[in-house]
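Worked example 2:
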Amino acid sequence: MPDSLEDLLRRRALLREHLEALDREIANLRGDEPPPFLGGTDEDLAENILEKYRQASSQDTKGARRGCLLYFAGAIALLFLGLAAMYFYVKSRHGP
């Protein structure tokens, strides 16, 4: 195997630094505020990205439970309707 894991990780870190430098240069040429330097380890980078897109979780467990129970009740009702329909169909075809 020509590339070791350490070499690949080093090259990825260099590419990440280069891309961040390019982003800063593009922002300077556009007149925008340059993006923050993310740097650091992969874990830090992942946490920064997750924090950027993280949403507040909703704690509406009562609504979720109610919805699940309604779906379950609907499924049971459809099952019994299907069984009743089959019963009456067979009864009408074969007589009493």
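The two ends are 79 Å apart (CA to CA). Helices lie at 5-30, 42-53, 61-94.
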